[in-house]
Specification:
The chain is built from 8 helices and 7 strands, in the order βαβαβαβαβαβαααβ. With 250 residues, it is of the alpha/beta class. The chain has one domain: Rossmann fold (3-Layer(aba) Sandwich), CATH 3.40.50. Strands 3-2-1-4-5-6-7 form a 7-stranded parallel β-sheet, sandwiched between helices. Helix 1 crosses helix 8, helix 3 packs parallel to helix 4 and helix 6 crosses helix 7. The chain starts with a strand and ends in a 5-residue tail after the last strand.
């Protein structure tokens, strides 16, 4: 029996790379899809059957050419969309170029993947799982996070709708909602918040870590383990859900 084939979009990023490593360790054949660095990540994975794909999630034609019913990588059992950007700032001073870029990657990108997946499954019905990255910021908004939160709220709504549409073809779609992940993106965000508020980045990062009763940041591997479960065949009864990966309230 061949390995379950998963495509990880954004697989060369700090989070996507760990997702690829965990999936490979669980026996998946992984296609690392990204705009740069994908070959290096694929070459370093354990096991066999891995490959790399240059893919810009914001380019609908490219996504269809790779993941659609006639795509170069159409025979997949699971998709993970881990590509994402962040931006912080109050609504009153929104940087509209940053707004466009964040929404293009964080929300329009998943729509492109969902579009290709829907058409693929209609042409070739089968058990197939899609996992989209949202965030706890997609569940509860806060000052300074409007652009990012709007994109992640949108991912949850999109995922629920997509799940209903692809179920008749054997498809599933779920979202993961990590809390504050110990990652370069979060550290950059802490520095940006600190600069805006006249504080030190380490102080803001410590506040992020203390936001839950865990009193720590979430490890990327903890997120990757949850993604691997949803991408696998042991979660066939789960679709249209949003899995929170975070500590309890303080």
């Amino acid at each position: 029996m061949s390995a379950r084939r998963v495509i990880v979009v954004g697989g060369a990023g700090a989070i996507g790379r760990v997702v690829c490593e965990v999936l490979a360790g669980d026996g998946f054949a992984v296609t690392v899809a990204d705009v740069r660095g994908q070959e290096d990540v694929a070459a370093a994975l354990t096991g066999g059957g891995h490959d790399a794909l240059r893919l810009d999630i914001t380019d609908l034609d490219a996504v269809l050419a790779a993941l659609g019913p006639d795509g170069s990588h159409r025979d997949y059992d699971a998709l993970v969309v881990a590509a994402g950007l962040n931006y912080t700032g109050p609504v009153a001073t929104t940087d509209w170029a940053a707004y466009d870029r964040v929404l293009e990657v964080n929300l329009r990108g998943p729509f492109h993947v969902g579009h290709a997946l829907s058409r693929n499954l209609a042409a070739d019905p089968r058990e197939c799982s899609a996992v989209f990255f949202s965030s706890t910021a997609g569940l509860t908004g806060e000052g300074g996070a409007s652009v990012y939160a709007a994109s992640k709220f949108g991912v949850i709504g999109f995922t629920q709708c997509l799940a209903s549409e692809i179920a008749r073809h054997g498809g599933r779609a779920n979202a993961v909602c990590p809390g504050n992940i110990d990652s370069p993106m979060l550290r950059t965000l802490a520095d940006q918040v600190a600069e805006r508020e006249g504080r030190r980045g380490e102080e803001v990062l410590r506040e992020f870590a203390g936001a839950t009763a865990f009193d720590r940041l979430i490890d990327i591997r903890e997120v990757a383990d949850a993604v691997a479960f949803l991408a696998g065949a042991r979660s066939t009864g789960i679709s249209g859900q949003s899995l929170v990966i975070d500590g309890p309230p303080r």
